[in-house]
Amino acid sequence: MAGMQKNISSDVKNISSDVKKSGENGNGLILYQNYQSYFCLKVVFALHEKKLKFKSHVIDLYRGEQFEPWFVRINPKCEVPVLKDGVKIIPDSRRIIDYIEDNFSNGDTPRLLPEKGSVEFQQMGRMRDLIDNLPIGLVTFGCIFNPQMTGRIRLSNQEIRIRQARFAAHENLLTDLSEKNKEFKDHYLVKKSGLMRLFKLVTDSNEVDKGILDVEYALKEVEKLLVTHEGDKKKWWLCCEKFTTADISLCVLLSRLHQIGLTDIFFKDNKLPHLQEYFKRAQQREAYKKTMNQGDGILNSFVCLDTKEQMFVAVGSVAVILAAAGIATFLIHRNK
């Protein structure tokens, strides 16, 4: 319990302001997140679109901070994002976005939904479900483990190695934690089982190909909808004139696909032209820029270090992951 109090009290030191003050009193929102997390980006994007003040507590996913007992007490699933609003704890990106939409849409705070009951509202729900249900973890790590299936991955070799080693490192860490923290043993073992299942999938090129085809189908459905935006609808976003939660899901998806090289394939030879134009326009939104550039100061400082210093910092922050690189390589070959 003392350890938990120590970690929670350190929030004050670890929390950084991510949005300029939007009101005198603010709203007291704290987001437990990681700057590179696909699901965290959705929530950050929504918060910026709604111009809400919030603070970030950054969780080091590669070091396995999400498995530490103090965080398991906040979210037994050991996942980010988690939003804290006073005494309320809301996990899961979709639930968080719905929560802030339901509770922070008064006055000058813009809504991210069309009028309920409208055709546009139904269309938005369908497209959001289509995008949110894509196997993004399988596709992301699948392309990292099978680079021949994608275009140019926009990650450094070091970043790729760290992500590849993550599975073995976390498996070992969860085994160790389950023995030391009996109170959370079941949570750790469930998480470990899920990671092992995912690792088996991402190292199977056939499964990865299925995931990529699912994404391609979804993007073609988006293109079909965008094609219908003619005349007065020329400047519409995905489902209506208003930028909605479905747009947030789509923009974060497109950003991730670009990062892992799949837009090189999906957009090749001017395929999906309306979607390409949509993405160019979306990237100009202030909320998009703020979301995708969060943490830039930290990342730029890291990039400026020389090679020896970079390795020192990397080992210091993700030691257990890099130490497991050899194990991960063995497991990759064993499962092929």
UniProtKB/TrEMBL annotation:
List, alphabetically, the InterPro entries matched.
Glutathione-S-Trfase_C_sf (IPR036282), Glutathione_S-Trfase (IPR040079), Glutathione_S-Trfase_N (IPR004045), GST_C (IPR004046), Thioredoxin-like_sf (IPR036249)
Task: Provide the GST N-terminal domain boundaries.
Answer: 27-108
Which SUPFAM superfamilies did the record assign?
GST C-terminal domain-like, Thioredoxin-like
Q: Which UniProt keywords apply?
A: Membrane, Transmembrane, Transmembrane helix
GO biological process terms, alphabetically, are:
mitochondrial fission; mitochondrial fusion; protein targeting to mitochondrion
- Among its keywords, does the record have Transit peptide? no
Question: Which parts pass through the membrane?
Answer: 311-332
Which Pfam families does this one have? GST_C_3, GST_N_2
Gene3D superfamilies, from UniProt?
1.20.1050.10, Glutaredoxin
Cellular component terms, GO, for this chain's entry? mitochondrial outer membrane
> Which family does the similarity line name?
Belongs to the GST superfamily.
The entry's protein name is Ganglioside-induced differentiation-associated protein 1
